[in-house]
Design a protein that fits this description.
162 residues; Toll_tir_struct_dom_sf; mainly alpha; Disease resistance protein RPS6; 10% strand; Disease_R_plants; single chain; Rossmann fold
Length: 162
């Protein structure tokens, strides 16, 4: 709806590495929404996805939006509280390098201002606002579909101003 297509990773079979289809979907996205919950850090799959999302943010300027769903942004940033306990448990079976990269990614994503469920008395209103924000961001950026078309930017900008 709203001309927004969503990639949902729930249909992908879980394995030790992120599926190529998911990597491709992350790279092709103009916006990624990271929904952080208390159990988010229990999934090395989610943590690896996060690394890919933040890499796209840094390398190609992908917009990253955050939703803190029942978790304090400070606990995500510092890996403390219940979130931190879950993260430490996930890291027990991993290398120090993986733990360090994930920890930095969580600090980075925790620093991105986003929606915090506790600030809303109505979850559906929060979702409506997020959809509006996504739509506004998509309308404000030029699609990568036009990347290789020489001279089209000026025409797109003129159309957008109309």
């Amino acid at each position: 709806c709203n001309g927004i297509s969503m990639f949902d990773d729930q249909g992908i079979e879980r394995s030790h590495t992120i599926a190529p289809a998911l990597k491709q979907a992350i790279v092709e996205s103009r916006i990624s929404i990271v929904v952080l919950s208390k159990s988010y850090a229990s999934s090395s799959w989610c943590l690896d996805e996060l690394l890919g999302i933040l890499k796209c943010k840094e390398e190609i300027g992908q917009i990253v939006m955050t939703v803190f769903y029942g978790v304090d942004p400070s606990d995500v940033r510092k890996q403390t509280g219940e979130f931190g306990k879950v993260f430490k448990e996930t890291c027990r079976r991993k290398t120090e390098e993986e733990r360090r990269r994930w920890s930095q990614a969580l600090t980075d994503v925790g620093n991105i201002a986003g929606e915090h469920l506790l600030n809303w008395d109505n979850e559906s209103k929060m979702i409506e606002k997020i959809a509006r924000d996504v739509s506004n961001n998509l309308n404000a950026t030029i699609s990568k579909d036009f990347e290789d078309m020489v001279g089209i930017e000026a025409h797109l900008e003129k159309m957008q101003s109309l």
